[in-house]
Amino acid sequence: MASHIVGYPRMGPKRELKFALESFWDGKSSAEDLEKVATDLRVSIWKQMADAGIKYIPSNTFSYYDQVLDTTAMLGAVPDRYSWTGGEIGFSTYFSMARGNATVPAMEMTKWFDTNYHFIVPELGPNTKFSYSSHKAVNEYKEAKALGIDTVPALVGPVSYLLLSKPAKGVEKSFSLLSLLSSILPVYKEVIAELKAAGATWIQFDEPTLVLDLDSHQLAAFSAAYTELESALSGLNVLVETYFADIPAESYKTLTSLNSVTAYGFDLIRGAKTLDLVKSAGFPSGKYLFAGVVDGRNIWADDLAASLSTLESLEAIVGKDKLVVSTSCSLMHTAVDLVNETKLDSEIKSWLAFAAQKVVEVNALAKALAGQKDEAYFAANAAAQASRRSSPRVTNEEVQKAAAALKGSDHCRATNVSARLDAQQKKLNLPVLPTTTIGSFPQTVELRRVRREYKAKKITEEEYVSAIKEEISKVVKIQEELDIDVLVHGEPERNDMVEYFGEQLSGFAFTANGWVQSYGSRCVKPPIIYGDVSRPNPMTVFWSKLAQSMTSRPMKGMLTGPVTILNWSFVRNDQPRFETCYQIALAIKKEVEDLEAGGIQVIQIDEAALREGLPLRKAEHAFYLDWAVHSFRITNCGVQDTTQIHTHMCYSNFNDIIHSIINMDADVITIENSRSDEKLLSVFREGVVYGAGIGPGVYDIHSPRIPSTEEIADRINKMLAVLDTNILWVNPDCGLKTRKYTEVKPALTNMVSAAKLIRTQL
Ligand code: GLN
Ligand code: ZN
């Protein structure tokens, strides 16, 4: 019985690659230094898998930045603006595409399916020339081979590559990306030929787009591509790997009828229906099924007994020698190695498995199927599963009951939004085009030091409170001087908008090194929600009241919403996501009510990640949006009409979810807008119907550039062309945390001047 791993984290157990990349980009180390770190990481990962007993070990799953960009390099599809003149693509062109350079901006980055990983979007057009320009896949194969490890080289499949691309600027609307298939396949053929010549016997094509809603034209492209590659692939075992959802029946039919493909990888964690499909639709005889039973997207130890029984039922269908135990997707979406979590308490630790541990689980399952079950290992796993099920730290009856009572019922504010806004205006007395900011102010080195020292108990609580208090008073003063209408306290006490709340809620645990790559060298460290969530004490009330006491202007209370907390955490897998979300919503509701009781009249509940949780397939959107919106409403359904609820979202393309946004029924919505004005217009029109306040960001905070008053005024005027004067708010795109005061002060000065200028023209 064989075992396989779809892919492995590249960053290293202590983010070695991150530091090597950043030092190289800063000019502090050489290309050789970077290559050395990368080689060491690859070698240690291969050895680790080989030592664990994994039969099909992947190569080419390492990347200096991103696997889709690697494919762009392989195909030589470098956009013209990088002035690449051919030859093997080196660091300079590669990192220019990823990050831009002094003269040319980077390529666009977008989310990899519904993960928090971002890939570099290929820009293709009818004139794009393709040529084999990065031998990385072959080089990595040979590198492993030299160590005596025969790997399965992994490539992003040709159809997924094209379906994830976008038409380059200026390309005709009628252009079809899939029409490039016949232009990229010759390069794939060259790569395949070289891999064969180097001794490869297997090849893996990642085709995750196969789990999406595809039309018949797109499915036909899969058949065409793998038929065209058939002779090139002959003699190789070909694995087509899918992941992140179950595979639709039509796609399953197409995929399993391809002659050139000899093995299929399915995600059996997110794709629970795939198992039934394989059972009902049958499986082609003589082909391999790579069963993704070990979760690549989460940090929980596998329930080995349950997986074993799944595998046994598959074995009866596909045959003993054709079933391969695998991970649900690449392990790059989970943390690297539990060994480094020395501070995590041992009970919780026994419930977890990071990438390194998952490799061992996969192998243990394969051995068990082959009749060599490691009884002690399985017994320890069963004991840990049982302890997780029965631990009083996981279950809180009261919370369970309260959350269960929410289902089926609706939660909404008593009065409609227009009436509420009138009531609020009587109290707040704001000018037209009120100005505000999204929450955070620049986080200085000094501020980070204070937080760090307090955490390490190097300074006392009094010292900490007085330092933060001083910072808040500075931020309040700046805003008063700028003459901003609705103030914020600046969030100086917060490291991260989810972690800050997670640390104060029960049911959350934190790792020291549980990093997951987000993009390039950037990693995030999601909290782990392991138990029922409750709020033992108020979390933000002290700081918000303190800030409000410093000014007569309204001070916004600042909270992170339940859906965002959920979507940016590792979530429990022993209850549905919505149940966990309702629990968080109830905890935030208490906080909202305490803020209101504490005299805070405006409360912002950020839902930066609401859209991120949208399921990959349309049929599942409605259900998700329903409970996500419901969760948000739970948090503030109980406040008085005069309490103004804001929400903020870090995106603007919600044309397709606008009705859900309206259903959230916030009083004011601030959104990111700096990059896509035109697209927003239709949304705005709906906003007019809705009647709530809307603050589309008037300038981009992701750039150090300082926008002029005229420029901002121009933007506001454009918005006023479609929006009622009395619903428009004036604010930046997002929080100012990553900016410097030297940028923030002049930018906000211009923003306020622009608002004032336009007020005089109304
Ligand atoms: N209130 C948060 C801040 O300003 C919002 C950030 C976000 O939405 N990503 O930092
Ligand atoms: Zn934002």
Automatic annotation (TrEMBL):
Cofactor mode of binding and number, as noted: Binds 2 Zn(2+) ions per subunit.
Cellular localisation: Cytoplasm, Cytosol
Keywords: Amino-acid biosynthesis, Metal-binding, Methionine biosynthesis, Methyltransferase, Transferase, Zinc
Start and end residues of each Cobalamin-independent methionine synthase MetE C-terminal/archaeal domain: 433-756
GO biological process terms, semicolon-separated: methylation
Swiss-Prot/TrEMBL catalytic activity: 5-methyltetrahydropteroyltri-L-glutamate + L-homocysteine = tetrahydropteroyltri-L-glutamate + L-methionine
Binding site for L-methionine: I438, G439, S440, E491, D606
Recorded metabolic or biological pathway in which this protein acts: Amino-acid biosynthesis; L-methionine biosynthesis via de novo pathway; L-methionine from L-homocysteine (MetE route): step 1/1
Catalytic residues identified in the record: H702
Annotated positions binding L-homocysteine: I438, G439, S440, D606
EC number per UniProt: 2.1.1.14
Keyword Secreted: no
Function noted in UniProt: Catalyzes the transfer of a methyl group from 5-methyltetrahydrofolate to homocysteine resulting in methionine formation.
Similarity comment: Belongs to the vitamin-B12 independent methionine synthase family.
Designated name of the protein: 5-methyltetrahydropteroyltriglutamate--homocysteine S-methyltransferase
Organism: Leersia perrieri
